[in-house]
Amino acid sequence: MNILVLGATGRVGSQIVTYSLHDRHHVTVLVRTPEKIQIHNENLTIIQGNVLNKNDIALAMRGIDVVISALNTDGTNTLSESMPLIIEAMVNEGIIRIITIGTAGILQSRTTSNTLRYQSSESKRKSTRAAEEHHKVYDILKQSNLDWTIVCPTYLPDGEKVGKYRIERNFLPEGGAKISVPDTAEFTFKQINASDYIKSRVGIAY
After folding, report:
1. Tens-place pLDDT, residues 84-112
2. Spacing of C-alpha 199 from chain mean position
3. Is there a contact between 64 and 39 (Cβ–Cβ < 8 Å)?
4. Where are the domains of the chain?
5. Helix count (H) and strand count (E) of the chain?
6. Is this model's pTM higher than 0.85 or not?
7. Among 16, 22, 41, 52, which is most exposed with the fewest C-beta within 10 angstroms?
8. Using CA atoms, how far apart are residues 74 and 83, in angstroms rounded to an integer?
């Protein structure tokens, strides 16, 4: 399978690249700084570019079967501003499957109906800025015709790969407090061959 990984230099994105190459998929990454990619593999194509550049995104999408976005917020609007460009390029190339990394803040609240966690007392974070960015992306994807899945981890330490975790559609598993980067990346990668959570958010935690 030909996989495009966006956010490949980040903690989760780099692990997704590793898992994908280990399974002998062909991986394309679009990165601003190619030097940050320390992997040398004949199945890895590195394209220097920016997710906010329409031409760069279009180039990266050529021949791709599935898109995985592990872009993070980084205190900017890159996440929400890039998603319309990503969707447009996918539509132009006939790609329908996208898996993105979100945040547990955009899952449904258990305590307040019709409210997201970051808008309720469930969220312990003082700043809602990152969650608001992810919320925008969620709304954009909902309005698309793509087969999207948003993986929504809670507190995300680097940690070790445990291989066992709880998942729940649209909610954070009850009492879930953390999930490691390797386990989040593994579950996200597995979604390339799964259809259980299409057009859904999925909460993940130990």
Report:
1. 999 999 999 999 999 999 999 999 999 99
2. 14
3. no
4. 2-205
5. 5, 8
6. yes
7. 22
8. 15
pLDDT digits (tens, 9 = 90+) for 24-63: 999 999 999 999 998 999 999 999 999 999 999 999 999 9
- CA dist 42 → 29, 56, 82, 124 (Å): 13, 22, 28, 44
Instruction: Check if the beta carbon of residue 147 is closer than 8 Å to that of residue 97.
Output: yes
Strand ordering across the sheet containing 147-153: 44-48, 26-31, 2-6, 66-69, 97-101, 147-153, 200-205, 166-169
DSSP string of 95-164? --EEEEE--GGGSBPSSSTT-BGGGSTT---S--HHHHHHHHHHHHHHTSSSEEEEEEESS-------S-
